[in-house]
Predict the 3D structure of the following.
Amino acid sequence: MSAPALHVSGTARIGAEHVFGPLTLDAAGGAWTCLLGPSGVGKTTLLRLIAGLDDVTGFAGTITASDGLPLQGRLALMAQSDLLMPWLDVVDNALLGARLRGNRPDRDRAREVLERVGLGDHLHKRPGQLSGGQRQRVALARTLMEDRAIVLLDEPFSALDARTRSQMQDLACELLAGRTVLMVTHDPAEAARLGDAILVMSPDRLDPVAPPPGPAPRAVDDNATLRAQAALLTRLREEA
């Protein structure tokens, strides 16, 4: 799969209220771009606009892929909420995209992905029988099942405990290798571990912050990664 770069340039408003912009975002093809910033600055709105799921916000500008082809059908979005269907079991929730499109569901692959995210013993449970972290892992598996070139992640690991979060970060890096990933996170440690590029969002700009050296996922105790985490936290405190 050849993943294109993602380019966004413009301004967003809800009625007369300014949301963000003008700003320009370039997410490199086949790499992870991590987007941080204060709450309410428009990070989730930006993801939803890219995904074509925001009917409320007006956007004046361009959202394009570097290969010039339409984004429709090449995007997957994992939202903050797990959005699981309570009447479906874990396997069928992971296969929801295929079901909605009328495609034949690949149940064997779904079971394999669910095993990889640590849910092999919960395949036939319904969401009400799962913990919050387990539900989040089902949502991650559903996103991985979409197998899209461009993946938008909105705080995908926020509901997980620290140990599971680091494991899921490692797994997502492995399974999304070669994809163009744009991830919103409030966690400087997560951005320092995973980002090939790191951007801090303000209402009218995006400021790049140099990521630590080395490929992601970086070791949680790597000195350069810890220094980058501290610098990012300081920067976010200043923005707030």
